[in-house]
Amino acid sequence: MPTSTDDALPIVENEEARPPSPASVARRSPQDNELDLQPSGCGSSMCCNPTSGVHRFIALIFMCLLGFGSYFCYDNPGALQEVFKHDLNITTTEFTLIYSIYSWPNVVLCFIGGFLIDRVFGIRLGTIIYLFILLIGQLIFASGGLLGTFWIMIVGRFIFGIGAESLAVAQNNYAVLWFKGKELNMVFGLQLSVARFGSTVNFWVMQPIYDYVSKFYADHRAIGVVLLLAAGTCVLSLLCALILGWMDKRAERILQRNTNPSGEIAKLSDVTTFKVSFWMVSIICVAYYVAIFPFIALGKTFFMHRFHFSPDQANNVNSIVYLISAIASPVFGFVIDKTGRNVSWVFCATFTTIGAHALLAFTLLNPYIGMIIMGLSYSMLAASLWPLVALIIPEYQLGTAYGFCQSVQNLGLAVITIVAGMIVDRSDGNYVWVELFFMGWLTVALISTCVIWGYDKKVKGNLNMTPAQRVQYASAMRAANQDNGVYSSDQEPLLDD
């Protein structure tokens, strides 16, 4: 939980808005037009009024760009794999350490990072701090390249990972607190789209940049210079964090928002009080994503062996999932915003992903068919699953909740990738067994989705409601709380304190 009202982020959500108290109105000066319910002057224009769609769209641009530098720099080594191994004189095992050192610490650290957003930093300061850590890590990584010292590069990558994963938690918090109840599903889809675009741009430009830089610098120094240039994207993201923080603080002042009206304080032990539906969402975060990312990591060899593709053809079909998700994620988000029924969408996404893996494992149909289905399903899942956390967990605990989801996802990806590789090795390249392994995890995700549906139906929750039903549900909750003289921590009170 933020330690002051300046560290709390407003939910730009008209249906949950409440008028400022008479005392706060009386304290305003006549010139303080920005705080009027109908702002005048600059505050009344579409781009300056925090309640307007234009203003929120501008904030969304900066919100999406927060993670661009992180995703661009994360795959810098992947775009230059052979260059790294040759110029730094490292083995393939040493090269994979660049990626594993990023994931393992975040099994714990991004959970702590989310808690620090809730309890210590607040969303604005936390975002800036994590982006600064990310930038420092990339600079150290580049310095190791300049010096040709591999252990310095590993230290930089470790620091980079701490900032990057905690930044993802902060980015999720920003999305929820600005768009909950409006276009939240589309926003999560759009953030995924920009993330995938950052990774794609990295693969497009890093090799040409290296080819140019290598005309002036030799060996490891060229890698160092290229990585320093890539750090410019992190600087861009840091500037976006500063601008978004200013916009958020201004919006909070104008709208007089309080995201934690009950005054409860986030604690690490809060995770033990989370509902069954949250634990099921966490299981889906692991069980679904381990059937996507490890598969793509092994995909090139899979397509070469099973479908006899050339290396270039295998790379092309293997990249389909990311390319489709960059386009389809915001589209699915828009549709889910209009229809609701998030749990049903999660079920459909998981079921169709099982079908995609089955096509690839048991048929010789053109693999583009299976990969296109997988890409569409992945986009559907991302746009419908992550917003569920915001419907389950109170705002003052969102950082802790999203941090926990990121942590268990990192643990799952780190372990399952290794296990999947072992299955391939022990089956003498028979990828049917590893496909059955992935389908088994997807079945776990499917069962968890059914548990969410059953539990939500039992407690008469709002996870699988339409948008109109959720508005009625929120109104009924506020009315019931007013009648009882109390309100829950995740609902806005009807009256001033």
Automatic annotation (TrEMBL):
<comment type="subunit">
    <text>Homodimer. Interacts with lysosomal protein GLMP (via lumenal domain); the interaction starts while both proteins are still in the endoplasmic reticulum and is required for stabilization of MFSD1 in lysosomes but has no direct effect on its targeting to lysosomes or transporter activity.</text>
</comment>
<feature type="transmembrane region" description="Helical">
    <location>
        <begin position="343"/>
        <end position="362"/>
    </location>
</feature>
<keyword id="KW-0458">Lysosome</keyword>
<keyword id="KW-1133">Transmembrane helix</keyword>
<dbReference type="InterPro" id="IPR011701">
    <property type="entry name" value="MFS"/>
</dbReference>
<dbReference type="InterPro" id="IPR036259">
    <property type="entry name" value="MFS_trans_sf"/>
</dbReference>
<keyword id="KW-0472">Membrane</keyword>
<feature type="transmembrane region" description="Helical">
    <location>
        <begin position="368"/>
        <end position="389"/>
    </location>
</feature>
<feature type="transmembrane region" description="Helical">
    <location>
        <begin position="54"/>
        <end position="72"/>
    </location>
</feature>
<dbReference type="Pfam" id="PF07690">
    <property type="entry name" value="MFS_1"/>
</dbReference>
<keyword id="KW-0813">Transport</keyword>
<feature type="transmembrane region" description="Helical">
    <location>
        <begin position="436"/>
        <end position="455"/>
    </location>
</feature>
<keyword id="KW-0812">Transmembrane</keyword>
<protein>
    <recommendedName>
        <fullName>Lysosomal dipeptide transporter MFSD1</fullName>
    </recommendedName>
</protein>
<comment type="function">
    <text>Lysosomal dipeptide uniporter that selectively exports lysine, arginine or histidine-containing dipeptides with a net positive charge from the lysosome lumen into the cytosol. Could play a role in a specific type of protein O-glycosylation indirectly regulating macrophages migration and tissue invasion. Also essential for liver homeostasis.</text>
</comment>
<dbReference type="GO" id="GO:0022857">
    <property type="term" value="F:transmembrane transporter activity"/>
</dbReference>
<feature type="region of interest" description="Disordered">
    <location>
        <begin position="1"/>
        <end position="36"/>
    </location>
</feature>
<feature type="transmembrane region" description="Helical">
    <location>
        <begin position="97"/>
        <end position="117"/>
    </location>
</feature>
<feature type="domain" description="Major facilitator superfamily (MFS) profile">
    <location>
        <begin position="55"/>
        <end position="460"/>
    </location>
</feature>
<feature type="transmembrane region" description="Helical">
    <location>
        <begin position="225"/>
        <end position="247"/>
    </location>
</feature>
<dbReference type="InterPro" id="IPR020846">
    <property type="entry name" value="MFS_dom"/>
</dbReference>
<feature type="transmembrane region" description="Helical">
    <location>
        <begin position="319"/>
        <end position="336"/>
    </location>
</feature>
<feature type="transmembrane region" description="Helical">
    <location>
        <begin position="158"/>
        <end position="179"/>
    </location>
</feature>
<dbReference type="GO" id="GO:0005765">
    <property type="term" value="C:lysosomal membrane"/>
</dbReference>
<dbReference type="InterPro" id="IPR052187">
    <property type="entry name" value="MFSD1"/>
</dbReference>
<feature type="transmembrane region" description="Helical">
    <location>
        <begin position="401"/>
        <end position="424"/>
    </location>
</feature>
<feature type="transmembrane region" description="Helical">
    <location>
        <begin position="276"/>
        <end position="299"/>
    </location>
</feature>
<comment type="similarity">
    <text>Belongs to the major facilitator superfamily.</text>
</comment>
<feature type="transmembrane region" description="Helical">
    <location>
        <begin position="129"/>
        <end position="152"/>
    </location>
</feature>
